[in-house]
Each structure stands twice: as structure tokens, then as C-alpha cells.
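Proteins fold reproducibly. Take a sample protein:
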Amino acid sequence: VKGSGPENRLLTKDIISAHDFTLSLDLYVNAGNTNSAIKFGFFATAAAASRYQVTYDGPKSRLAFERVVQGTTTLLGVPASADLPVNTGGTAHHVEISVDGDRVRASVGGQLLLDTVDADMADAAAGRIVVASQFPNQDYSVDNIVVTTDETEAVGEYTVAVATETNGVRDTSTETAGGTLTASRSSGNAGD
């Protein structure tokens, strides 16, 4: 990410359904990153306007845990001192953020820097992962973004509603609705 602006971001397309997980990534801070806040978010809404995040504030040399609700940011807990120097082409700043119910722990290079509890987070809706930044001089990259969890995969029964559309308009009359749908999991017919 290189540039400026109110917020540049990368947002996962899919929702991370686990509620307890570890987000790990490698951060490379480049020489042009002279005035930037780099954010690692989770439980993000589709537009990332609401989320929880761990923010590395370069100008203040600190790591903080925050909640964002419709663009308004609230600091949670006490920020930790963190100086992440330029490391282009060198060893990555390995960041790990563990979410366990209402507790968030963040470490850089294996050193635990944040350990914060937020009672509301335990009830947060599943959401996306986001990497974002703001302020005038952003110049960094992330690599090896991995989400791991011990939670079992959610499986079960699903209800499917089938409807047809003709020329982009949903058919409401069963007498005039068009189309045919054939699917069979066991035989492998078209439509599986």
C-alpha cells in the first residue's frame, strides 16, 4: 500500500465465520511510511465501516486496540509502545492477533504487547478481515496473511428457496414462471 488518503484498505470478500481465531501476518514498513496508521481489523462489516482493529500508529510509536462503529473509533484498553522500523527486504515484523471470546491479544515478533478485554466483542457478528491505513504518507506491505481457528466447521441442514427471473424481473406467478431446475447430489446431474 503506497499513497495517502482518509483510508486505503484491503477487505476479504468472504466472512470469517470463526469467533475465536488467530490472525497472523508479516508486515514490511518501507522508507516512505513516515506518517501512517496501519490497521489490522476483524469482525468487519461489508463496507468495513464497523469493526474491531489493532492499529499500529507510526507517528506515536504505539499499538492500540480499537472498536470502530460507523466510522467512529473508540480506544479500548491501554495502548502499548511499539516501534516498528523500516524493514524493506529484511526480516518481517510478524504480527499475531488472537481473538478469544471477549479477549484480544496482540504480539509483534513474539512479544505480547496488548492483552485487552471488551465484553461487547463476545457478541460481535462474524465479519471480514481488513488491512487498512490512513494519513498522508503510507508505504508498507503485508504478506502471509493467515487466519487459524480450533473451532469446528459449521455444518447442518440448509433450506433453499428456488425462484426464477425473466429478463431480470422475478416471476411471481407460478402459472407463468419460466425455467427448469434439475439437480441431484447422488447422480451428479447438471445443477449440482
